[in-house]
Amino acid sequence: MTESGPGRDPAAVSRFVEGFAAQLVEAGMQRMPARVFAALLASDAGTLTAAELGDQLKVSPAAVSGAVRYLAQQHMVSREREPGSRRERYRVHSDQWYETLTNRESILKRWAAALGEGIRSLGPETPAGRRMAETLAFFEFIDGEIAAMMERWREHRDELFP
Amino acid sequence: MTESGPGRDPAAVSRFVEGFAAQLVEAGMQRMPARVFAALLASDAGTLTAAELGDQLKVSPAAVSGAVRYLAQQHMVSREREPGSRRERYRVHSDQWYETLTNRESILKRWAAALGEGIRSLGPETPAGRRMAETLAFFEFIDGEIAAMMERWREHRDELFP
DNA sequence: TCTTAACTTCACAAGATTCTGAAAAAAGCG
DNA sequence: CGCTTTTTTCAGAATCTTGTGAAGTTAAGA
Asked: Is the N or the C terminus of chain B less surrounded, counting Cβ atoms within 10 Å?
């Protein structure tokens, strides 16, 4: 339930954090980044400090540091320096983080590059070459479609959350 | 007997297999399934036997067995019994395997389920709940779009490879 | 039915990851 | 500047993963 006062049920938060993190792990994400990310997603402000993360997840500052570095590299969180403090805050941009999922362009592009090289070295007219060419065409098609899809999403979002 | 056609350079095949597998690994796939899959993708017939896979990849039958089981579960390859032999052949369907990439529905659905539970337990009107609701809406939107996108792909493919 | 090829399962060793504690580095503040 | 708080780095221990060898299971052919 929605609570005010001393706040939210820490047990409920923890259940969500661990459950969602587990799903992310299953999809290939490392455990600690997944937990840190889920904790940020479940925070009311959308930001937490390193100390809060370490405290809530019961891990060392070192682990938080490593996880946050990874998440920042993936553009899933950003770092903000709090004015008037030496603390750093880590933020999840609710309307942007999941766009990084579709920005796995880098991955599609690397797959495409590896396939292109395979086609070239095995020969485009060999059976294997043709099979790989079809796969490559698929990746290129998807790559083009995703931008349009995200544009439609933003319109759709603006209707849902005006 | 499966003949590697004339002019097919085993070293070139191996380079592709290891390179493409490395990209798959980077995207979260286990190493052995990735190598087995890449080997199938690069095979001329689109099929290989367990013995051929073990031989080409220099791994034990046990490793092949585990990798193939995983790939079959993910519907990335299918198993065929060779008539008149006790061998099994493993096949990649060139025009279908990559559709499994978009069929990670299961993953989207599980993420959505975890988010839905989080929204319910933290409260849909809390800031965290609203953030999660937007993410959930995104996943639901994507889920709907993907089917349409794949339909467009099939049309596109039929133009490219009539 | 028996034999034997082919695949699968399982315990374990080798290897890779991941997190911690401790020390170093960076950065605000007087 | 020097003190203090916060973050980062790094070596190493604990934990997981992964592939192997060997035994076990299944199924084709005689």
From this structure: N
Among chain A residues, CA nearest to B24: A111
Task: Check whether residue A89 and residue A31 sit in a common domain.
Answer: yes
Say if CB B148 and CB B158 are below 8 A apart: no
Last residue in a domain, options A75, A93, A111: A93
Please tell me whether residues B30 and B62 are part of one structural domain.
yes
Question: Do B142 and B68 lie in a common domain?
Answer: no
Pair B85, B109 in one domain: no
User: Residue B58 CB closer than 7 angstroms to strand D?
Assistant: yes
- How many domains does the structure of chain B reveal? 2
**How many angstroms separate the CA of residue B29 from the nearest CA in chain A?**
7
- Contacting residues for A65 by C-beta, under 8 A, at least 6 apart: A50
| Cα–Cα dist B160/A30, whole Å | 39
Query: Are residue A14 and residue A79 in the same domain, yes or no?
Result: yes
With a pLDDT cut of 90, the percent of chain B lying above it is 73
Residues of chain B with pLDDT > 70, as a percent, come to 94
Cβ B44 vs Cβ B15: under 8 Å: no
Query: Are A41 and A92 within 8 A, CB to CB?
Result: yes
The stretches of chain B forming alpha helices (DSSP H) are 10-26, 31-41, 50-57, 61-73, 99-102, 105-122, 127-160
Closest residue of chain B to A145, computed from CA coordinates: B149
Same domain, B46 and B117: no
Q: For residue B6, what pLDDT is reported?
A: 52
Å from B64 (CA) to D28 (C1')? Answer: 22
Range of the structural domain that residue B81 is part of: 10-93
- The pLDDT tens digits of the residues spanning B61-111 come to 999 999 999 999 999 999 998 777 889 999 998 878 888 887 766 788 899
**Straight-line distance from CA A49 to C1' D6, in Å?**
10
Whether residue B35 is found in the same domain as residue B72: yes
Does B141 have pLDDT greater than 70? Answer: yes
pLDDT in tens, A114-150: 999 999 999 999 999 999 999 999 999 999 999 899 9
